[in-house]
Specification:
The protein is an alpha/beta fold. It contains six helices and seven strands. The chain starts with 13 loop residues before the first helix and ends with a strand.
Length: about 220
């Protein structure tokens, strides 16, 4: 009896999968994100970006929603995995008359020199970067000694009821949005050698604002 050989199905690369998700979401991303921000994240982008200064790198820069919140004196570079999101970011920069070097790239492996930035910013991005610890290590590598990392993220809640709901939703969020609900960036920052300067939590602890710095 002859058996038909089954063609091997390659396991999709998680980074490629996340890129496809955000390429598809790009046209409606700003509209859907605006709803979440009104309900849960109001003021958080401004909190993070207003503290940035000097040569600033934003990872997972998306459609450049943060642009209005940066000081005019900052020199901006953005890295975004999705080409379609990055193109919308360039368009926003043009509309605002704000310069940003918007690049398509992977935050886990930045094509940027060591110690070339004063500040790294990430808002609601560490939740979707497949290896967020690698991204934090890369942020440390490209920061100058004493440089700051500023985060606004949704994280694993310390509240047991909220955390239980997050556990239930996690498989669906990851499958359809590439989103992880149970991460805690403070752990990744500590592993990468950052020193934590400020932590603000809200919304039962699942929204977190963090300012940290790379030691001299």
């Amino acid at each position: 009896m002859l058996l038909r050989r089954e063609r091997a199905c390659p396991i999709p690369n998680e980074t490629d999968r996340v890129r496809r998700i955000f390429d598809k979401q790009a046209p409606k991303y700003d509209r859907s994100m605006a709803r979440f921000e009104r309900l849960l994240f109001s003021g958080n982008r401004a909190w993070a970006c207003s503290r940035a200064g000097g040569d600033v790198l934003e990872i997972a820069a998306g459609t450049a929603r943060n642009l209005p919140h940066y000081p005019q004196s900052a020199t901006l570079t953005g890295v975004e995995l999705s080409p379609r999101m990055a193109e919308l970011g360039r368009r926003r920069a043009g509309e605002l008359g704000r310069e940003i070097d918007m690049r398509v790239g992977d935050a886990e492996s930045l094509d940027l020199p060591d110690e070339s930035f004063d500040t790294v910013v990430c808002t609601y991005g560490l939740c979707t970067i497949p290896d967020h610890r690698a991204a934090v290590r890369e942020a440390s590598r490209v920061l100058r000694p004493g440089g700051r990392m500023l985060l606004a993220e949704h994280v694993r809640s310390p509240n047991p009821v909220v955390r239980a709901i997050q556990r239930l939703l996690e498989p669906f969020a990851h499958r359809f949005g590439g989103d992880h609900l149970l991460r805690e960036p403070l752990e990744a920052l500590a592993e990468a050698g950052f020193e934590i300067d400020e932590v603000n939590r809200s919304k039962a602890g699942f929204v977190e604002l963090v300012a940290a710095h790379k030691p001299h």
